[in-house]
Amino acid sequence: MKKYHQPECSCAPTRLKLTKLGYLGHYAFVFFVLFPFLLSIFSYIKFLNGNYDGLRPIREMFDGTSIFVGIAFILFLLQYKRLRFKIYSISISEEKVIEICHKIAEVNEWKIKQSTKNVFVASTEVPFDFIGEVITVIVHHQKVYINCICDPYKRPNITSFGYNRKYKQEIIRQINNATME
Is the overall model pTM greater than 0.90, yes or no? Predict the structure, then answer.
């Protein structure tokens, strides 16, 4: 199995670590929103070189596109926050948590990417291959670290239409049910 999704190398992970391609897919909309501003910069460089023959006066070049920098910054912060693990305390064994994850994966028809004694990574498979989620669960010292993001290795998405939250809540609910037994 290829290990696309790995936590940071520490005892208690805080953020999901992706490959370079994964980061590019995860932050793709940030780059997309910056595109008009980058075109203005390109035109300004042409102006500095004396080759500018555009329609807008140079004083107005950044007036309409500077808002995109703010939007891109907000999108960057949102996507950066989504890579953080949610941490929950548990009182059951690591093996039991991974077993619960396997049961949830079977019910929801997730494709298991990695499964060890304390790490579980799965992705959703959808018929049209345009939205998918990556679910990462790490169990370490009576804590479970859960992350669910839109799959950055498929077509980039900003929203999962509530599925990320739903999957996280389902995992926590099942763990809490197992704790009560």
Answer: no
